[in-house]
Write a structure and sequence with these properties.
Layout: E1 7-11, H1 15-27, E2 31-35, H2 38-47, E3 52-56, H3 64-74, E4 79-84, H4 89-97, E5 102-105, H5 110-142
Parallel strand pairs: 1-2, 1-3, 3-4, 4-5
Helix pairs in contact: 2-3
The chain binds magnesium ion.
Length: about 150
Amino acid sequence: MIKIPTKVLLVDDEKDFIEMLSLRLTEVGEKITVAYSGQEALDTLEKADIDVVILDIKMPGMDGIETLREIKKQFPLVEVIMLTGHGSTETAVEGMKLGAFDYLMKPADFDDLLLKLEGARKRKDEQQERIRKAEAKLLVRKSGGIFS
Ligand SMILES: [Mg+2]
């Protein structure tokens, strides 16, 4: 079976971490883009087609929660998985209330990350499919309901 790669944007100020994670995700067939700050992430989302953002919460400048807020405002269909440190479960909960799909505690277990990535991708695909169907229905109605 041919796997359709998930287009992932990795956002973290820790370069080594991003590079390592990018390598491992590329190895399992995902398509990876990286950003080192919240602003860079938003700029990237403007230009690139992304399915899921893996977003570090603790970053200098625009932090993860602020970035998440902007992502959900500007790109509501993009799913976000947050990366949090120990003791920031509260932030994780806040993020999920703001529309994040889930969170991972750093250092994240790779298999766990893959599972959550798959879940996020699935949610995005399903939502897009619902929108596509609703749009098709709208089109039929606008064309005078010839099929009804
Ligand atoms: Mg960080």
